[in-house]
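Preliminary data (for renewal application), 2-oxoglutaric acid complex.
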Amino acid sequence: MLKLTPQQIEHFNEKGYLIVEHVLSELDIQAIRDEYSAIIDREAPRLLDEGQLSQTYAHLPFEDRYTKILYELEDMYALYQHLDISLPLLQDMPEDASLNAGPAVFNHVLTHPNILNIAEALLNTSELFSNPVQHTRIKPPKAALPTTIAIDSNVAKTGWHQDEAVLTDDVGEIDMLTVWVAMTDANRNNGCMMCVEGSHRKEVTMHCPGNHEQSSAEIFIPEDLIDQDKIVDLEVGKGGVVLLHQRTEHGSYDNNSDKIRWSFDLRFNKIGQHTGREVFPGFVARSQQNPELVQTDAEAWAQEWFDTRDRIVAGEHVLFNERWLPYSRHQLCA
Ligand SMILES: O=C(O)CCC(=O)C(=O)O
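Predicted structure:
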């Protein structure tokens, strides 16, 4: 069972990031890959029937199949929404909106004991809540991305931001950790993350509002505010994780390789804190004080997401992060 050393914890507290290799095993990764392959097996024939694809590419391995399908789709979310581990953040929620709330993601990523050990050590608490601000990012080679979707951070590079700035501004005090899980090796060539060392010591930096209609969270820090001398590349091997403080400025590079770059980003906070995306369901991941509240049932977790979808369809209000809108005319945001 993985346990962080005092030196690793000190590195994180000092620099605002930490890289830990070999957190997920090959078996974990295979279980997740199988779950994702099954989703494509299910969705590709539907997309073909709907006339959105010319063929199902069933002869290709998952990675190449995904890339080919994404390239052909007019709306990437016709597939991507089945792969992400979050519903779309939309008031106008489609009745059939989907996500991957499958058991492999729940058992082999979100509740993986190694990941929970790391979160416990870095948040310095045994009371862990799995925050629902979470995503799957499967990034095809940049050369294989249609230009229409080359600005979406689920599939292309991610602009500079702090994760705290993504949350709604009614969040109040939050102690949140980002756990970024590498499903493939991540390096400078295939689009690893990068961060500004020590930036977690600052307050929340000014962000520009994004205008991407699928994700109101796609805000960015203007390049001029980034201390270029302190940028660190966050390269990590498959199965490893990158940990980020909630105020560490970070983003990612383009995928200039000829293979996909795949990751999950999860967040944990202390139980009882507002998550900054209250409309979506999180869960108690670990608790010494109230162990009976810990969610261990993957199906029940999935059902919470689908119930949430149904409540939003029925009219529940979605609170968006609008705190950066006043900056839309700022000279640095042009
Ligand atoms: O995977 C990426 O490119 C970016 C992920 C990210 O920015 C995050 O986890 O906050």
